[in-house]
Specification:
The protein contains eleven helices and eleven strands. By secondary structure, it is α+β, with helices and mostly antiparallel strands. It has two domains: about 180 residues, Regulatory protein AraC (Jelly Rolls), CATH 2.60.120; about 110 residues, Homeodomain-like (Arc Repressor Mutant, subunit A), CATH 1.10.10. The protein is globular and about 60 Å long.
Length: about 300
C-alpha cells in the first residue's frame, strides 16, 4: 500500500523531534521506535495519513487536539492520548477552538506491537482515545525515547533501551485501559489469571489447578479466558514462556536446553517446535540474529 501523507508543521521553536534508526535484528525481533517528538503546535498544525507501517501514540500535555479515525471525531484534551494504526486513514490537528496543542508522541512498530494494540482496543471499548496523567511512567518513557541517542556500546544497546521504553509505554497505556471499568469488559477473574500466569510462567499449570485457585470450573475458566483474551490459557502461557526464552537467548550464552528448562519446558523437542511455530525460526536461528550478545 502506498503511503498517503499531507501535513502542516505549525510548530514553535522549542519543539523537538528525534528520528531513530534500528538494526535489522531489532526490526525483526523487538519493538522499535521510528520517531519521537515533543511538539508545541499552533492553530494550523495538522496531519492526514494512510498506509504507513507504524503505530502512533500522542499524549496531550496542554491545549487540545482533534483526531478523526474510523469514521469518528475525537477531542484529545490534556491527560488524554490516542493510539492508532497508521495503515488506516487518519487525520489529527490542533482543535479548532484551541489556541495550540502541546503534545508528546512516538511512532513505533515491530514484534508484539499488533498484540499490544489489539489488547488496548479490546480493553478500551474499541476506542482509540484513553487517559493518562502526565506523571504516568508512560510520559517519562516518551521523554526518554525523545532523548535517546547512539550508545557508546553500539546500536544494539540503543535498540534494547528503546524496546524497554516502548514496552513500558505500551504497558502503561494498556493498564490504563484495563483500569477504567466503564470502558473495559475484561472480568477481574480473567485479569487475575493473566497476571498469575505472567508471574509464574516457569511452573507447570493445568486447567483444573487454575480452576481451584480462581474458584471456577476448568471448563468455565477455559471459555471465559478464550472469550476475553483471544487464546486459551495454555497458549497464553506458551507465549509468556517464549517471550522470556527470547530474552535469555539475546542476553546470555546459556544452552538452549537450559533456557527451555528455565522457562518451564523440559522437553527440548517440544520447546523447539513451539518456538518455531511462534517465531518462524528455530531457537538456534533466532539466537544467531544477536551475535553481539554471544560473549
Amino acid at each position: 500500500m502506498d503511503v498517503k501523507l499531507r501535513y502542516e508543521l505549525d510548530l514553535a521553536p522549542e519543539s523537538r523531534w528525534n528520528i531513530l534508526s534500528s538494526t535489522a535484528a531489532a526490526k525483526y525481533a523487538l519493538l522499535y521506535a521510528q520517531e519521537a517528538g515533543d511538539f508545541y503546535a499552533g492553530k494550523d498544525y495538522y496531519t492526514t495519513r494512510q498506509g504507513a507501517e507504524s503505530y502512533l501514540i500522542k499524549l496531550t500535555i496542554s491545549g487540545c487536539g482533534e483526531l478523526r479515525y474510523g469514521g469518528r471525531c475525537y477531542p484529545v484534551p490534556p491527560g488524554h492520548f490516542f493510539w492508532i494504526d497508521c495503515r488506516e486513514e487518519q487525520s489529527y490537528r490542533t482543535a479548532p477552538d484551541a489556541d495550540g496543542w502541546h503534545v508528546v508522541w512516538v511512532h513505533f512498530y515491530g514484534a508484539n506491537a499488533k498484540f499490544y494494540y489489539e489488547s488496548f482496543l479490546r480493553n478500551n471499548g474499541a476506542e482509540p482515545v484513553g487517559t493518562l496523567p502526565t506523571d504516568s511512567p508512560a510520559y517519562s518513557a516518551m521523554q526518554a525515547l525523545l532523548e535517546l541517542s547512539p550508545s557508546e556500546n553500539g546500536q544494539m544497546e540503543r535498540d534494547l533501551r528503546a524496546a524497554e521504553l516502548l514496552t513500558r509505554l505500551l504497558t502503561q497505556c494498556l493498564l490504563s485501559a484495563m483500569d477504567h471499568s466503564q470502558t473495559s469488559n475484561l472480568p477481574q477473574s480473567v485479569r487475575e489469571i493473566c497476571v498469575y500466569l505472567m508471574n509464574h510462567y516457569a511452573q507447570k499449570h493445568t486447567l483444573e489447578e487454575l480452576g481451584v485457585r480462581f474458584n471456577m470450573s476448568a471448563c468455565h475458566l477455559q471459555k471465559q479466558f478464550k472469550r476475553y483474551v483471544g487464546q486459551s490459557p495454555t497458549d497464553y502461557l506458551i507465549c509468556q514462556r517464549m517471550l522470556h526464552a527470547k530474552e535469555l537467548m539475546r542476553t546470555t550464552r546459556k544452552p538452549i536446553g537450559e533456557i527451555a528448562a528455565m522457562v518451564g519446558v523440559t522437553n527440548l523437542g517440544y520447546f523447539t517446535r513451539q518456538f518455531k511455530k511462534q517465531e518462524g525460526l528455530t531457537p538456534q536461528e533466532y539466537r544467531s540474529l544477536w551475535p553481539a550478545y554471544e560473549k
